[in-house]
Amino acid sequence: MKVAFLGKGGSGKSTMATAFVRELRKRGIGVLAIDADYNMDLSYNLGAEPSVFLGNDPEKLKEHVGSVRADTYLNALKLAKEKGFVFTITPADGYTESISVELENGLRLITAGPHTDRVRSQEACSHSLAAPLKVYLPLLRLNPNEAVVIDERAGTDPVATGILSGVDLAVIVREPTVNSIRVAEQIKSELEFAKIPHLIVENKHKGIEVDTARAAEAIFAARSSHVVSV
Questions:
Q1: Global confidence as pTM
Q2: CATH number of the domain where residue 10 is located
Q3: CB 137 within 8 A of CB 165
């Protein structure tokens, strides 16, 4: 199972992603946590001090699958599929080992990282930090007792840029405010266009913070698109 958390900035998606990681670990499920947001909230929530960043050398993945740095990620994915490339968590393949850190037995972390000099100089956009996930996620093969939890950037960008093409479920975290509902609907529309299964978690309903543990249990049990109210 590969699950991504999305929503408006400040909606609580990083908090929910963290709770879901902990729920999975409580159930004895091995987790690869992916912090695709350059704010790195998921990494810090899990007690990490990130020093290995996917975004420091995004094109490294293209070379790993036998493509060239100037190629598109779409072409690199096509080439990798033709060659039968797969990535694994346990045991970790060479590429996964190089871009992740093991926080504890059964929990690995990939952090896209902060803005690089290439982004600051406008040689690349901030999307490039997590762009390798376009190839990595579709080719990541999980064992029966493993899962991936992705804390994405705010808004619709993660869906529109194709990064979520390799996920099984997208969780939209929504607050009862006009802007949060509007952004959630935009994300939902993009997910429907991309045919990505999704559900919505209501946060701060009637001003009360969601019970994250209970919400994580509900997400774990969910298999279809609906609203999870907790």
A1: 0.89
A2: 3.40.50.300
A3: yes
